């Protein structure tokens, strides 16, 4: 019994020992867990101090550094803390599973440390977001600063670009401007990105930061607009300078070319015949083609200068001077070309006249024996043969009449003989001339009585000798009585009064080609009247009425006329290489010419009436004037 009691006590002691051991172990692990939890909570508290820092950086570099350090901190804290929290949670779970007597306390510790860890993670996430937002904000400010710096750098380059105008060509200046504009275009993307970034940041910030964002954005946009305005102004300036350089270069080239053309005009030796004149005229027309080919370049150059002046270029006075110089040189060139062309035309007429005059003189010389013959025939057959021979001569003379008239038109001898008889040369250089013939009497005999007395000679038929030409402004008022003309505008035409008719041509060469203005017929002046239009608003205007009515205004053109004396003088080597000019055409000169032409029409009509009333089988022969160089037949066919 005693043994049983001892055994029972021993067993009880062993139970107490085991129980005591279990309690001590539980208390050990409890204290161990408590220490781990305290250390972890202390560690979390330290990390919370770092994670909860309000420091967000003073500038972009600072916030970038903070963000980099915090990323390292967050990475390290996350990995270490997660390991420690996992170990504690595992320890807690094991203690609870083993039935620790303080399971409730252990569970409370677990919840506390996990809550602290979660708070730390949330705090670190918040800190990371704040640093990221601060990074974006300071990056925006830094980008604004960089863009402003680039804008300022571009603005500082503008004066340098504009200053190159005197040291470069137009092409190089344009290329430099193009490169600069390309650099500016790169900023367009950056400015657009800044605007988009500012719009996003305004949704995240308020207060001072929002105002700072808006202020920086407006500062950049204001500087950008100023740069664009300065670029546009510089572009206009550079374009104007480049255009001015190109204009001056073009003017210089054109003036050099015009000087070359002026040197070419009239440098050839004097022509000695029709063929040499025609060769010179072909060469001169070649110069005209070259001038016309350059006409577009001259027009474009003048238009460029005009645009530069209208754009208020600083060099407007210089450009205007260049334009005036170019226009003056062009006018000089065209006037010299026209003057030399007129001289060539006149020389052509001179040599043509010389040829025609020699032929006509030879024909007249050949006809003299026939006209001087005193043979009248001794029989009817001989007389009839002489009559037939004479009729053949008359027909030949009629055919030659037009050639003599052309000689008169070529020389217009009568104004020069009346005004400048002293100009007729007497030297051997004059035209080939035939010996003057004495006046040969011509008698009209009746075929029925050839050998009887002779009838009194009929006076020679009057001819139209008035010649007048020049430019006039014409306005066609009436097509007939009370019938207004369809086209009543003023037109500058070349007017030629010849053979009693008035022709209107586009230019001085129109009469030679026979192409009148608008295909109009020649105006016969037989029943025409002319008078000064005193009541008309323009000056130097006179009326011409022949059933239709014209208003004619004399201009200031200088007419050039040629007489026989001038022809001889030029062929004889006159120093005046471009002909002789009469005084300016005026209204009174035209009125006198028209009145003289009307008088000639009256005389022709009176002679024709007298001729019709003459009873004769022979129409008579025209009287020849032996003392004139260019003779004509008396009656126009």
TrEMBL record:
Residues 437-447 have a biased composition (Basic residues). It holds the Pfam family Spectrin. Its main location: cytoplasm. GO terms for molecular function: actin binding; phospholipid binding. Keywords: Actin capping, Actin-binding, Cytoplasm, Cytoskeleton, Repeat. It is found in: Cytoplasm, Cytoskeleton. Residues 620-630 have a biased composition (Basic and acidic residues). Gene3D superfamilies: 1.20.58.60, Pleckstrin-homology domain (PH domain)/Phosphotyrosine-binding domain (PTB) (2.30.29.30). GO terms for cellular component: cytoplasm; cytoskeleton; membrane. Residues 421-466, 617-637 are annotated as: Disordered. GO terms for biological process: actin filament capping. Residues 465-616 form the PH domain. InterPro entries: PH-like_dom_sf, PH_9, PH_dom-spectrin-type, PH_domain, Spectrin/alpha-actinin, Spectrin_repeat. It comes from the Eukaryota. PANTHER family: SPECTRIN/FILAMIN RELATED CYTOSKELETAL PROTEIN (PTHR11915). Belongs to the spectrin family. This is PH domain-containing protein. It comes from Accipiter nisus (Eurasian sparrowhawk).
């Amino acid at each position: 019994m005693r043994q049983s009691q001892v055994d029972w006590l021993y067993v009880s002691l062993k139970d107490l020992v085991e129980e005591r051991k279990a309690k001590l172990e539980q208390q050990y692990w409890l204290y161990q867990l408590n220490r781990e939890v305290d250390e972890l909570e202390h560690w979390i508290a330290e990390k919370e101090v770092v994670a909860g820092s309000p420091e967000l950086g003073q500038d972009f570099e600072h916030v970038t550094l903070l963000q980099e350090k915090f990323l390292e901190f967050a990475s390290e804290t996350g990995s270490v803390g997660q390991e420690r929290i996992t170990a504690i949670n595992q320890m807690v779970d094991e203690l609870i599973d083993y039935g620790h007597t303080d399971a409730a306390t252990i569970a409370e510790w677990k919840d506390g440390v996990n809550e602290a860890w979660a708070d730390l993670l949330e705090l670190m996430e918040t800190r990371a977001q704040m640093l990221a937002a601060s990074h974006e904000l300071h990056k925006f400010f830094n980008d604004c600063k960089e863009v402003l710096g680039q804008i300022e750098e571009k603005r500082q380059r503008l004066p340098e670009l504009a200053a190159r105008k005197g040291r470069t060509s137009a092409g190089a200046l344009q290329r430099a401007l193009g490169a600069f504009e390309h650099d500016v275009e790169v900023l367009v993307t950056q400015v657009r990105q800044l605007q988009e970034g500012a719009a996003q940041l305004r949704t995240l910030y308020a207060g001072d930061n929002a105002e700072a964002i808006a202020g920086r954005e407006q500062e950049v946009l204001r500087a950008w607009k100023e740069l664009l305005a300065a670029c546009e102004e510089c572009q206009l300036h550079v374009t104007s300078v480049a255009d001015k350089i190109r204009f001056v270069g073009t003017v210089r080239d054109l003036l050099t070319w015009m000087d070359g053309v002026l040197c070419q005009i009239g440098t050839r030796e004097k022509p000695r015949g029709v063929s040499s004149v025609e060769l010179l005229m072909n060469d001169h027309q070649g110069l005209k083609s070259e001038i016309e080919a350059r006409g577009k370049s001259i027009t474009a150059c003048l238009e460029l200068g005009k645009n530069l002046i209208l754009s208020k270029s600083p060099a407007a006075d210089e450009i205007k001077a260049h334009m005036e110089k170019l226009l003056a040189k062009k006018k000089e060139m065209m006037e010299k070309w026209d003057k030399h062309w007129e001289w060539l035309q006149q020389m052509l007429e001179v040599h043509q006249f010389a040829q025609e005059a020699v032929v006509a003189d030879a024909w007249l010389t050949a006809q003299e024996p026939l006209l001087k013959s005193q043979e009248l025939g001794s029989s009817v057959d001989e007389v009839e043969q002489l009559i037939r021979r004479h009729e053949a001569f008359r027909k030949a003379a009629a055919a030659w009449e037009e050639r003599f008239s052309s000689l008169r038109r070529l020389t217009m001898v009568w104004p020069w003989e009346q005004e400048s008889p002293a100009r007729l040369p007497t030297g051997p250089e004059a035209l080939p001339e035939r010996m003057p013939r004495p006046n040969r009497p011509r008698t009209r005999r009746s075929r029925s009585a050839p050998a009887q007395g002779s009838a009194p000679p009929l006076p020679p038929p009057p001819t139209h000798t008035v010649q007048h030409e020049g430019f006039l402004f014409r306005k066609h008022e009436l097509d007939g009585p009370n019938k207004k003309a369809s086209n009543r505008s003023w037109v500058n035409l070349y007017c030629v009064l010849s053979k009693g008719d008035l022709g209107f041509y586009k230019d001085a060469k129109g009469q030679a080609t026979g192409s009148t203005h608008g295909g109009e017929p020649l105006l016969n002046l037989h029943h025409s009247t002319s008078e000064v239009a005193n009541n008309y608003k323009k000056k130097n205007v006179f009326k011409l009425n022949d059933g239709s009515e014209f208003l004619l205004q004399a201009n200031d053109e200088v007419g050039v006329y040629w007489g026989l004396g001038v022809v001889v003088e030029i062929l004889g080597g006159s120093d005046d290489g471009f002909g002789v000019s009469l005084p300016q055409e005026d209204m009174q000169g035209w009125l006198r010419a028209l009145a003289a032409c009307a008088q000639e029409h009256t005389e022709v009509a009176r002679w024709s009436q007298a001729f019709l009333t003459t009873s004769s089988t022979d129409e008579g022969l025209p009287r020849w004037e032996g003392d004139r160089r260019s003779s004509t037949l008396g009656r126009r066919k």
